[in-house]
Amino acid sequence: MTTFRFRIDAIKQQLQRRFGQTTDLMLVPIRIGSRQGLLCYLTTMTNTTFLTETVTTPLLQAYRQGGLADADRGLDAVRELLFGGLTTRLLDDPQPLPVLLTQGYAGLLLDGEPLMLMIDVKELEKRPISEPTTQNVIKGPKEAFTESADTNMSLIRRRILNERLRFEKYVVGSQSQTPVYLAFVEGEADERVLRDIRDCLQGSSMVSLFDSGSMEQLFRSRRGLLFPTLYNSERPDSICSCLMDKRVALIVNGSPFVLVVPALFSDFFKSPEDDYQWFLLGSFIRVLRYLAFMLSLSLSALYVAATCYHQELIPTLLLTSIAAQRIGIPFPAVVEMLLMEMTFELLREAGTRMPRLVGQSISIAGALVLGEASVQAGIVSNITVIVVALTAIAGFVSPVYSFGANIRLFRYALIILGSLFGLYGVIVGFAFLVVHLTRIETFGIPYLSPLARLGGRRSH
Amino acid sequence: MLVFLLGTSIIYGTPRLVPDTWLVDLLTIVPAFLLAGQYLLLIRLGRGGNLYDMLIGAWGKSAGRLLILAYTVYFLYIASRNLRDMLELVMTALLRNTPGELVVILFVPIVAFAAVGGIAALGRLSILIVLMVMMFFLTLTFLLIFSGSVDSERLFPFLSEGFGKVAGSVFRSSLWFPYGELIVFLVFRTYLGESGTMSRTCMFSLLSSAVALTFSDLLQICTLGMENKKYSVFALLDAARLINVANFITRMDALVAFIFIFGVLLKAAVLLYAGSRGAAVLFKTEVNRFAYPLAMLIGALSLLVSRNHAEHVSEGLIHVMYWLHIPLQFIVPLATLLLLWIRTPGGARA
Amino acid sequence: MKLLLAAARILGWTGILLVLGGCWDMVEVSRSSLITGIALENGQSRAIRVTIEVQNPAETMSAENGRGDAPAQLYVAEANTLSEAINRMNKQFERLLIGSHMQVIVIDERLARKGLKPFMDFFLRSRYVREDINLVVSKKNAASDLLRVPYPGGMSAGLAIQLQVFNLNRLWGGVPKSRMIDYTASVQTPGRELLLAAATINGVAGENENMDSVKTLEPQSNINVTDTAVFKGDKLVGFLPVNDSNMVLLVNDDLKQTTLSVPLPDDQTFAAVRLVRLHASKRVQMIRGRPKITLNVEGVGYIVSLDADLPLDQAAGYQKLERLTEAYVKERIGAIVKKVQTDYGADIFGFGEWLYRHRYGEFKNLSKSWNELFEEAEMQVVVDIRLERSELKTKNQSEIH
After folding, report:
1. Do B94 and A313 touch (CB under 8 A)?
2. pLDDT tens for residues A199-255?
3. Neighbors of chain A by Cβ distance (3+ pairs < 8 Å)
């Protein structure tokens, strides 16, 4: 059987065919010993300085010093001699060459050799570790994950100095080939959960993956409609405490948000800060978060239901005050409420997308124009503005942004139900929410543990 | 599963706002234990099967299937009675002009949604709902005490009509409702763990629901007075209306409506699940296919079942007792028990 | 996929139908008005005449942009039942009426003498009417006149009456609490008769109905909560003056605080004693067919003022005043009970109720004729007052040597 031999021309042609005319593919002829060789790499995956230092310079030096006479023996020897400290691979088949090139390897081949040397020269510009943008803490670590999966893994590893911490690599996305790392602590994580997650990752039919958010649909339990079943965080300390709590983390390259599977309802109300502060204060604030969640969900709906249907529930003087404010308002209470809520959504979205320089004008426009002026003009009443503002502020109390975002939609449903059927409608909406919450399970672990741990783990 | 049984048993008691004296509630514990004991014996003899299996095993295929049909319809009927209770409350206290059909249509899909989730989800639901109901109930109590409406003098006269009437009331009504409905749990036998823990759980939940019921009645009498209680349609609601703390917290009937609606939700979901299981056994299809249609059926039934409130109460308390509760909760299980005993060879009794 | 689409379509249509089906009960707050008070009188052409006081929210005390207009308006309607009258009010009034915040029901004296039952049923059944709404009997004046009195500061007459009754009851015990729950409790419990507050108007009724009359220093007309109305069953039989009301409440164990002007041995001098914690417990025994009532009154209080000199820097001084107060209270209680026995023959003190609760067997046979038995009852009162302190000074400081 003839062994395959690498030919420079053949390889050059193959690469040019596969990569097209892309300008970052470099095919550099190089001399190794007395033989012609080819160095191929992608300039965008590496740093030229690094490449020169680690690959070309040693080769040239060795050539000048004449120590490459043994190079005739093969690339194996070259590898041992010069690149012993780097990650290298030997290929005997040009098939995986393009993939490896895209992963940051530089390929070194000698004409006529049966083997080709791939050297890992990946050197990418990364964002430095900075403060988290979405989950802020007053007293606690202020490091956040970055887009590079290696940095993220390092941030986790340096906190859990335990040899049982494992990282497993998977590739998700048939076209984008994004590396995804599964992190868990051996012995802590549940075996069944691990197995299910691995199956999910390997069996995914996703085409491309650019952010961990897209992964959520892979793991979304069939029953979890309104609530996120994956917890994400930018903070290494939250992820580490989850890992120690029998959970599994997923690090997606290119996303600073690391996922934790499975997520529990109570996760979305925990901030790591609660543990770093005085116990009573932490507990109080946690209770406050739950209350704020309830409030942000139901206050608007309750206001509409109470003023339109059940005036007897409101104390007399308050009702008089509300009635006095609503004299002359042209819209029914529902319309007012929805109008203000929509306006607030617009404000919120605009504020996020606005370039930072123009952001100031949004807050002024929002506060003055929409709030104050509409009340003065008699379009909405003061109390509606108060309720909407309270609701919105309460909605930001959840430490995880995606949670609040999901629930916002349900708030509208509750308002509409409240306006149609009064308090009964709101109660029915709540009942639906409660039933839905109890039905959600990710990989057999119910959403409402630890409450539900009393009742057993897996459903039949 | 402990809390599941616990939870649902408490809920069984609370939603019914039937005028009764508290002593009756307390005394009902003893016969309730006997009834529960009968069920537990059934379980032990049934060797791990659920109610439907037991019926078939004891009576044979055709008679057994007939009985399963009877029980399925029975469970659905109780569910529709409960729904009617809730409807009455909502129509009186919350929405006066809205047609009852709409109220039911809103509610019934959620019951089905809960039942489709399966036993584990129902268990979690019951834990949550029981916690909420207990919390509201305690809040109600505290608020009533704070507004000075509780007067223990109203408990007197004590035993004015004599003990005989109390005892009679125990056997005639309180026993079957709510304790007799424990038979529903026999359907879920396979999920509930071994008989050892199950009997302990059963006893504990019976005790706690008796306590809860007694406490509720006590509270109602202390705030309203016995005479007033006789005239009110929903005694707990009237009691809650008396709350007035600093003229600011008033009119807590919404709280009572909340408790009630959630209680009925849980109860109806459990009954619906049992019923759909029965239907699944009879027609040999999967359980979940029946949930939504049967839920609609319950909804419709709840509207059709009585013309007005007085008929609903009298039918629910008097006629149902004799025609449905006593036979299906007592006589048939007793007979099944005896048959199973006879059929089981002596040594194989678990 | 097709199944999903079909399901989505079905859900969509049901959703739309549901949305169309709502809003049956909706009441728009700015298009409706709150009733704050209601006055019931004998009707001229029909059975009952109803005057309602409707709040004008812009002018009440909670609103900031009022122009000084009247905080409430009055509207009248007549019908055979109360409910019909209220629902026909739109003949004169443009908005929807919300009855859930009614504060006061003023009942005309003549109507009360005929009996309260016919119209109280409406209030008891309605889920809108609060259980602690005040019931007030209007004495001498027509009931609707009581609602025609303007108050400064954007307060409507209904609210004002409620506050007056509440505060008078709490601070001095001049009227019973007079709420609907009290009505229910009295009417349903055997052995107790109803007591309600009664009020009249100072000044001429109906003359000063505009807000100018409250812009002066002295109010031109105001509501005077004068008496306590005594009922037998649900029919009014008479009034007790406000001076005696606090003793009546004391016997009922309903008195929170009161101030007594205790006469001192010197002529025309008094000591003012404020009692803050009062408790009266009764015991009723049937002896030879006559009820024998033992009343134990305990009170704790302090001394507010002295006209004459008593050695309050010694324990003996306190004791002397305590004895005086006790004697005074005992005498007053004896007098008022006798008065009620002779004048009205109605057991407003709840002695029968005590018998009902604690000795049911004995009471069962007597319940029909309890009021007659009450007229012949013998009473024994034991009073124990403890005066604890005397504010900032000890003896009376205006001694002139």
Report:
1. no
2. 888 887 778 888 877 877 777 655 556 777 778 888 888 888 888 887 888 888 888
3. B, C
Q: Which of B165, B249, A157 is nearest to C132 (CA)?
A: B249
Same domain, C225 and C98: yes
What is the Cα–Cα distance from C294 to C281, expressed in whole angstroms? 8
Q: Tokens for C330, please give them.
A: 């005992």
Q: Is the ipTM of this complex over 0.90?
A: no
Q: Give yes or no: residues C283 and C377 share one domain.
A: yes
Name the pLDDT band for B285 (thresholds 50, 70, 90).
low
Residues C129 and C202 in one domain: yes
Residues C385 and C271 in one domain: yes
A294 and A252 assigned to the same domain: no
> Which CATH number goes with the domain that contains C322?
3.30.300.210
How many domains is chain B built from?
Answer: 1
Residue B343 lies in a domain: no
Cα distance between residue A343 and residue A367, in whole Å: 11
Q: How far is CA B147 from the centre of its chain?
A: 31
Give yes or no for residue A455 having a pLDDT over 50: no
In angstroms, rounded to a whole number, what is the distance separating the alpha carbons of residues A93 and A147? 33
- Taking only residues 39 to 58 of chain C, the set having a beta carbon closer than 8 angstroms to any beta carbon of chain A reads 55, 57-58
Residues of B in contact with C360 (CB under 8 A): 156-157, 160
Q: Which long-range contacts (CB under 8 A, 24 or more apart) does C82-90 make?
A: C82/C40, C82/C48, C82/C50, C82/C119, C82/C122, C83/C122, C85/C48, C85/C49, C85/C50, C86/C38, C86/C50, C86/C52, C89/C50, C89/C52
The tokens 């729904």 sit on which residue?
B83
Q: Which helix (H) or strand (E) holds C47?
A: none
In this structure, are A427 and A307 located in the same domain?
A: yes
Strand partners for A28: A39
State how far the Cα of A195 lies from the Cα of A420, in Å rounded to an integer.
Answer: 47
| Structural domain for A441, as ranges | 278-456
Proportion of chain C above pLDDT 90, given as a percent:
1
Q: What is the CATH number of the domain that holds B302?
A: 1.20.1740.10
Please indicate, yes or no, whether residues C33 and C130 belong to a single structural domain of this protein: yes
C144 contacts: CB under 8 Å, gap ≥ 6: C39, C41, C49, C51, C74, C76, C106
Find chain A residues with C-beta within 8 A of C128's C-beta: 312
B119-167: pLDDT as tens digits: 777 777 887 887 888 888 888 888 888 877 777 776 666 655 556 666 6
